[in-house]
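// run 5 | inverse folding | seed 20
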């Protein structure tokens, strides 16, 4: 299952005009606008933890991490998405003077949810692969310490997996390492405490 699209079809320019005036976030794919749903507690914590870990490692380096609100444009198709985390190392390239649509991300990260997992793995990833600058795509489970990293190698995307709190993932494209213990900090602790108290 993936987000339900609008019944009406829009041009990319119409979408951007609507989106920039909207109070909520909507993605745009093949002429259809997709309303985004709110994130769970686990989803929010994982996203914040990743951003924290990357920001620490980006100190004194020309890299930036954007959380949730930075729109990303897929080159050539003019489709637009809001990844959970978008990373750029180097000079960012934006769609226009509004500086709200990044065109050259180096790494994109999505935290999966039951309603969007198929979409994040399928149609969305297919669009992300069209972005020439993109080198790595990460997918994270919201309820267990598991990370999948897809790395571009020429025309191929190679899967690397890490699972368990002692595991880690090296993001070669940006020279960073994410440890699953830090990524899932506070995400699993409360659940274990609650289970013990029942």
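// decoded
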């Amino acid at each position: 299952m993936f987000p339900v699209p609008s019944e009406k079809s829009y041009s990319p320019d119409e979408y951007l005009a609507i989106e920039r005036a909207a109070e909520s976030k909507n993605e745009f794919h093949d002429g259809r606008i997709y309303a985004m749903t709110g994130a769970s507690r686990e989803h929010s914590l994982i996203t914040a933890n990743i951003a924290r870990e990357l920001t620490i490692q980006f100190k004194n380096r020309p890299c930036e991490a954007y959380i949730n609100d930075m729109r990303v444009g897929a080159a050539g198709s003019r489709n637009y998405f809001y990844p959970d985390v978008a990373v750029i190392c180097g000079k960012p390239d934006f769609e226009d003077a509004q500086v709200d649509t990044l065109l050259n991300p180096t790494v994109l990260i999505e935290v999966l949810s039951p309603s969007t997992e198929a979409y994040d793995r399928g149609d969305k990833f297919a669009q992300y692969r069209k972005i020439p600058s993109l080198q790595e795509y990460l997918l994270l489970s919201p309820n267990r310490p598991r990370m999948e990293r897809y790395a571009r190698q020429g025309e191929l995307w190679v899967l690397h997996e890490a699972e368990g709190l002692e595991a880690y993932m090296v993001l070669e494209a940006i020279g960073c390492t994410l440890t699953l213990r830090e990524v899932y900090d506070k995400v699993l602790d409360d659940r274990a405490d609650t289970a013990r108290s029942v």
